[in-house]
Amino acid sequence: MGAPTDKAVLVLEDGTILHGRAFGARKTVFGELVFTTEMTGYQESLTDPSYEGQLLMFTYPMIGNYGVHAGDSESDHVWARACIVWEECRTPFHPQGRRTLHDFLVEQNVPGMSGVDTRALTIKTRMFGTLKAALSTDGADPQALLAEVNRMPYPDKLNLVAAVSPKKPIRHGRSLAGELAGAADPKAPNVVLVDCGAKRNIVRHLVRQFNVVQVPWDADRPTVESFDPSGIFLSNGPGDPSHPDIVQHTVKTMRGLADEYPVMGICLGHQLLSLMYGATTYKLKFGHRGANQPAKDVASSRVYITSQNHGFSVDEKSLEGTGLRVTQRNANDNTVEGLEHRERPVFSVQYHPEACPGPRDTSHLFERFEKSIAKGRRA
Predict the structure, then answer these.
(1) CA distance 342 to 194
(2) Residue 326's closest CA among 338, 334, 335, 318?
(3) Which residues are marked as active site?
(4) DSSP string for 104-162
(5) What element of type H or E holds 369?
C-alpha cells in the first residue's frame, strides 16, 4: 500500500476505476457494491449488521448534513465496509449532533469516498447487478486492486451471519420505555431472539412487552428451550440464507421449534422461515435497499411504505406444498414480501417493521406477534 492521501479510488470487477476524495479512515477494503435510496438514516444503515461484506453507496446527494447522534446506532460499530457518497458534509447542523460523519468513520476505522457520480453507479448496478469492488483511501494501486477483486469470491459465499451474531446469550428484562438491560420481569412472557445480525431497534420493540434473550445464530434447540420461551423471533442479517452453515444450524433448529412456538421473522429471518418449510431462495439482481419500498397486502390491496435491506428473495414457485402462503408482495417487482403459515402462528415479512428513522406503517406487526403469544397457542 502507498502513503496516506486525500485521494480515493473505487475499482469494480468489470474494470471500472473511479477516483474521488477520501474521508473517514485511510485503508483498503473489499466487498460488494450496493446502493440505498434512503434520504435519512445514514448512521442507522452504516451500523446495521445486514451490511456486513458490502460497500454502501447512498443515492441521496448529500450525506452527513445532520451529523452523528449518540444513541442512534443500530449496533456497537459500523458494519458496512465503506461509505460512498456524492457529497460528504463536513459542517453538519443539528442540536443533537455530536460528531461529523468523517469523525465517526475515522473512529470506526471505515473508509469513505466522496465526489463519485452515485447516480451513474446506481444505473450501472441496476443494469448489470451488484458487482464485487475495492475501495482504497491509502494509495493502493488500482490495477493490483482489480486483480484482487477478480480473485475474491462474492462476500455472500462466506458465512457472514457468524461474523455479526453474538457469541453468547444476552438477556434483556421487559422495559416499557424500550431500554435495553434490566432484570427479567416475572410477569412478562419470554421471547428468544435468534440473532443473525439483529438491529438494536428490534430489541427495543420486543422488550416493551417481553423478557428477551438474544441467542447466537447457531444455538441448538435445548439452548433455545432452556429460556422457557413463549415465542421465537428470527432477526435480520447479512448474506445468503441458504449458506450451508446456516441451513445446518439455524434452519435445522428452527424447523422443529416452529412446530411448537409462535414465530415471527423479518428480512433474513423471513427467508430462513421459508427454508424451514422447504421453500427456496435466490439472489436478486441488485436487491432492495432504502426506506421507501412499497409492499402490497394481498388480501386488502393496501400498500405499505417499508424500509428494506436485502439481496435475496423467497422463490414464490417453491412455496407449493410448504404450508406457507404469500400475504404481501413488492409493488415494484412482485417479489414475496410477506408469508404466513396456513395452520400455525408463524409469519414473516421481508422488510423492517422496526425501522427508525423510516416509515412506521408496519410497526403493528409486533402487536400481531404479541397477540399470537398471548393466545398461548402451542401445537
Answers:
(1) 23
(2) 338
(3) 267, 352, 354
(4) HHHHHT-EEEES--HHHHHHHHHHH--EEEEEESS---HHHHHHHHHHSPPGGGS-HHH
(5) helix 364-374
C-alpha cell at 1: 500500500
Q: State the CB neighbour count (10 A cutoff) for residue 214.
A: 24
**Cβ distance 160 to 52 under 8 Å?**
yes
Q: Buried b vs exposed e over 92-107: b needs ≥16 C-beta within 10 Å?
A: beeeebebbbbbbbbe
In Å, what is the CA distance from 132 to each residue of 34, 66, 223? 9, 30, 37
CA–CA distance, 224 with 232 (Å, rounded to integer): 9
Would you state the cell numbers that stand for residue 338, as one nine-digit string?
410477506
Place of cell 428452527: 254
The C-alpha atoms of residue 75 and residue 96 are separated, in whole angstroms, by: 19
Task: Name all domains of the chain by residue range, CATH numbers in brackets.
Answer: 7-157 (3.50.30.20), 161-374 (3.40.50.880)
C-alpha cell of residue 34: 450496493
Nearest of 17, 27, 21 to residue 6 by alpha carbon: 21
Residue with cell 441448538: 220
What pTM did the predictor assign? 0.94
Task: Give the pLDDT means over successive 10-residue stretches in the chain (379 positions).
Answer: 72 98 98 96 96 98 94 94 97 87 97 97 97 97 98 97 97 88 88 97 95 97 97 98 98 94 98 98 97 95 96 98 98 97 97 83 92 73
Half-sphere exposure at residue 320, Cβ-oriented, CA atoms within 13 angstroms:
2
Nearest to 66 by CA among 355, 361, 357, 359: 357
Determine the pLDDT at residue 2.
43
